[in-house]
Amino acid sequence: MLEDNWTGTSTVPSRNLYPHQWSWDSAFIAIGLRHVSPLRAQTELETLLNAQWGDGRVPHIVFNPSVPLDAYFPSPDFWRSSTAGRAAGAPRTVQTSGIVQPPVHALAAWLVHEADPGLSRARGFLARVYPRLAAWHRYLLHRRDLGGGGLVSVVHPWEQGMDNSPCWDLPLSRVAPAPARSFRRADLAHGAPGDRPTDLDYGRYVRLAADYRDGGYRDRPGGGHGAGAGAFAVEDPAFNALLIASEHALARIARELGAAGTARHARARRLTAALVRRLWDPAAGMFLCRDVRGGRLIRERGVCGLVPLLLPALPREIAAALVRTACGPHFGLGGAVRLVPSHDLLSPAFDRHRYWRGPAWFNVNWLLERGLRLHGRPGPAAALRRAVLDTADSSGFAEYVDPYTGEPRGAAGFGWTAALALDLLHDRPARDGNGVQRTEGGDRG
């Protein structure tokens, strides 16, 4: 199915529902492709980075001009990147969206390099992508610290990737939805309405995106209680954790290229401290999102709050608490569910079928499996690895599944599901000389 979704320069998540190139999808897809075609994995990332804006942002969609406009909404004529984004350096030769997605790309680039260092060096792969990845991180760190506390804010739920999470309900409630007649949803032609965001939520997504576009895709950094933030600005633990993991990867890339990586490792440690300071909630036993405009934590337990388990420099007691929360009644790892759900099983907002409000997603479980191995939990990691592989196979490599039954939901033959299953088949746990489990491309910091 990765072959079926290949366009010649990149991989679409799904031919029908998502017929363009998506940012964090391509990063996960490259991680899987590295095992069967390191060249194609490199091309996947290079194609995405060729659409980078002058200000450093990597757009969340790169549009294929051969796809009809009505095949997906919001389409290129909604985003108007080359005109509305001109001041921010949007490319003129390709149409993109104007928002971003989680920065998994440096981690992906390092893992792709490790798969075939000879090919990577011969092609100058890291030398070409490193400046672009560094500019991408600069954009996030310098332009998106909307709360003034050292963390990156997302300005749209689509940026965080977990689009319809209940974690966004509070900040979204301030957004007046776009009129229903002002847009046409293409997603409902490919998925059951009960699985998709409601019309009200979608109207709010459209309003946020249109306002950001009409403001020239300008970011307004500020400090404290939402100063400088628009109607929606959230510090999300998963987005920031993936940035930190990619900072560690950039340090390794720098060393490979003959430069010092010490400063980047130090920055990653500072970001980890900021993540703990601003988003850790001991009572919840996990990280929570922060509503920048409201100046407070959002009291919803989303799976995004478990993703920092991926970080090597996370304090030991916090890592242990995250494992307890993942295995407890709120997420059911190793017990009530087949795969970790996207939201708290005990929350009134939990919905086992509706997009990101409860279903289990393969990329999130891949990240958690990696984090469990990193922090010395080989038993739960091995069980989760088997569950991901079994459920991916039995579901037809679905976009997402019912966390209890594994019933497939969303698109079939989904790109990152296939790619990450491929990665788990190849990336078997190894042990270092001290008998400590480690994972490819990762260390204890």
From TrEMBL:
PANTHER family: MANNOSYL-OLIGOSACCHARIDE GLUCOSIDASE
Annotated Mannosylglycerate hydrolase MGH1-like glycoside hydrolase domain residues: 18-417
Source organism of the structure: Streptomyces glaucus
InterPro entries with a match to the protein in the record: 6-hairpin_glycosidase_sf, 6hp_glycosidase-like_sf, Glycoside_hydrolase_63, MGH1-like_GH
Pfam families named in the record: MGH1-like_GH
Gene Ontology molecular function, alphabetical: hydrolase activity, acting on glycosyl bonds
Protein family (similarity comment): Belongs to the glycosyl hydrolase 63 family.
Protein name: Trehalase family glycosidase
